[in-house]
Amino acid sequence: MFDSVTELLAEHRELTERLADPAVHADAALARRLGRRYAELGAVVAAHTAWEQAEEDLADAAELAAEPGEDGEAFAAELPGLTARRDEAAERLRRVLIPRDPDDARDVIMEVKAGEGGEEAALFAGDLVRMYLRYAESRGWSCQVLSATESDLGGYKDAQIAVRGTGSGPSEGVFAALKFEGGVHRVQRVPVTESAGRIHTSAAGVLVLPEAEEAEEVRIDPHELKVDVFRSSGPGGQSVNTTDSAVRLTHLPTGIVVSMQNEKSQLQNREAALRVLRSRLLDLQRQEREAADAAARHGQVRTLDRSERVRTYNFPENRIADHRCGYKAYNLDAVLDGDLGPVIASLQAQDEQRRLDALGGGAA
Asked: Prokaryotic-type class I peptide chain release factors domain spans which residues (predicted)?
């Protein structure tokens, strides 16, 4: 049983030795990659150890229960509980052996854009940005608004946010949670601009990118970049409309365009644009990988399908409904205040069950 765990335990031992080598830490990118994998395998090691101990305890009790007398009867009485504990440990081990998304431990860059609906859509995009910032704060993550274009009434036409986690492991990774937010979010409410009190429907799109690291797998050839500089517009201090501090990067092989103007210096805007560009290229690699593996992943939730309406926020009923997993609750006010955990947990549970089913119900 659980034959597949043998290779993973061996890999964990090998990583333990490699991470103890100071030479590995001289390469920061390599150390980060090995550290992420080590943390992921740590969960497998812990679950396997617990399962082995439960198996051993059950076997010992079964042997002693076969002895005549009161001692045998006492151990026999313990068998049902020990069997249940063994079965629970086996189920935990099955679940940690489910192949994980290789990007789960990564930090993310989120892009929120107002859709059709004018000013109301921009206000809703602003609500989503605040929801994610508050949720991140509740998780102890740090956030940085890389770029934002405000609307006249204080919403966001678009915003880009970098979210960084605590580095505590893949299951606690930022992408592991926020990747399910990708898609079209729909709101139903009476807009502040509506004088007749009619309920309108508008939408905002959310894009969640696993963040690439500069020295890691996404390398950008400077010769493949077209760099344009221009004057900033909007809030930003004395540099606005006086210096060419805004930067637009065009990645010629893919046609991806990233513009930044929030910072006051051209260098800072260029670095922020490169950060987003690397993440978009990493996401492109991810989509190509998923497309190549589409048959194996058939039926799995397509968390990065931008065209799918993934969730509805109904203000008159204070209701939130996720259309992928069937989650529904009447605490929309709390969710918009950052209480997003139960929604995400429901999506994670569905995703985990689908992958477990794809493995035939176990990893034995």
From this structure: 231-247
Per-residue model confidence as pLDDT tens for the chain (364 residues): 567 788 899 999 999 999 999 998 988 878 888 887 888 888 899 999 999 999 999 999 998 888 888 888 888 899 999 999 999 999 888 888 887 787 888 899 999 999 877 899 999 999 999 999 999 999 999 999 998 999 988 899 999 999 998 765 555 689 999 999 999 999 999 988 777 778 889 999 999 998 886 555 678 888 999 999 988 775 544 445 556 789 999 999 999 999 998 888 889 899 899 989 988 998 888 888 777 655 433 333 333 333 468 999 999 999 999 999 999 999 999 999 999 999 999 999 998 888 877 766 544 4
Structural domain boundaries in the chain: 5-96, 108-295+304-355
Q: What share of the chain is helix, strand, coil (3-state, %, to 5)?
A: 50, 20, 35
- Cβ within 8 Å of residue 331, ≥6 positions away: 318, 320, 339
Q: CATH number of the domain at 108-295+304-355, please?
A: 3.30.70.1660
Model confidence pTM above 0.90:
no
Give dist(CA 75, CA 352) in Å, integer: 36
Taking alpha carbons only, the member of 324, 315, 337 closest to residue 182 is 324
